[in-house]
Each structure stands twice: as structure tokens, then as C-alpha cells.
Amino acid sequence: MTRTWEGPSARERQEVLRRTKTVAIVGASDNPSRASYFVATYLLSTSPYELWFVNPRATEILGRPVYPSLADVPGTPDVVDVFRRPSDLPEVLDETLAAGARTLWLQLGLWDEDVARRAQDAGLEVVMDRCLKIEHARFAGGLHWAGFDTGVITSRRTRGLPTA
């Protein structure tokens, strides 16, 4: 399937993350092997974001309360970070719009151009098929040691950015 929707640039994603104060993780899991758990652990330890976990089947994750839906979180999330099945995305968009969030962020592997266009038409910023943790670490400099943001994978550590 050809992708026709164009998401925000790296600079625009960085700006989204820079102004974000609150993140609701929809599909948060208490299972340490799940990506949402790993992302939550990372964000709790390295970011200033206030996190709200959303999952109708959990009551506590990482010692924090879990809310059954976006309608139940204690405030308006700036970013709704989604870890749900693709078929759930239209419903998650409806809940995101009702919650008054500014950004709908669909994690790696989630791509729905109809949902993206509908969200943008309603005034939301949309990021698809990107990991909030990876993007945060990328812009905060946390991926330098692994070489992911440099395009160079090496076991040799360098000081500063590699030169061309």
C-alpha cells in the first residue's frame, strides 16, 4: 500500500515534544515485555512529562493509577500516545478529540491515513509510525551512544557529532 500522507518533519516533532507537558498512554500495559511498558519506564525516568496510563483492564502500572478511558484521566493530555490495534484507531481518535488533546501520536507500526486526515481536519497534530521514546531520546541526545541518530553504527565512541 502506498503511503500518501506526510507527517510532521523532525523539527516539527521536536517542537511537539518540547511544548508537551502531559502524555496519556492509551493501551498502556503492566507487562514489562510490552513496548508501552518500556516507553512508560523511559519517559518516567528521563522526561518531565506527566504521564497518565489508559487501559480498561489494569488498575496500576509502575506504581501509578490506570484510567479506564481517556475521559477518565485527570486533565487534558497534550499528547495521546497510542499502543492499540489498527482497527481501534478510529475509536481512539474519537476519544482523543473528546479529551481535547493537541496531538495524536501513533506508535511504530500504526498507520491510518483516514484517521490522520480526520484528526488534522479537527485541528489535531498527527504523528504516525514513530516511537515517542525514540523521538524523545533522539532530540534529547540519548541515542548518540547507540549511533541511531548519526547514521553510523560503531563500537567506537566519539566526542561530539561525527564529521563527514
Automatic annotation (TrEMBL):
Residues 16-110 form the CoA-binding domain. Gene3D superfamilies: NAD(P)-binding Rossmann-like Domain. Coiled coil: none annotated. It comes from the Bacteria. InterPro entries: CoA-bd, NAD(P)-bd_dom_sf. This is CoA-binding protein. The lineage of its organism: Bacteria, Bacillati, Actinomycetota, Actinomycetes, Geodermatophilales.
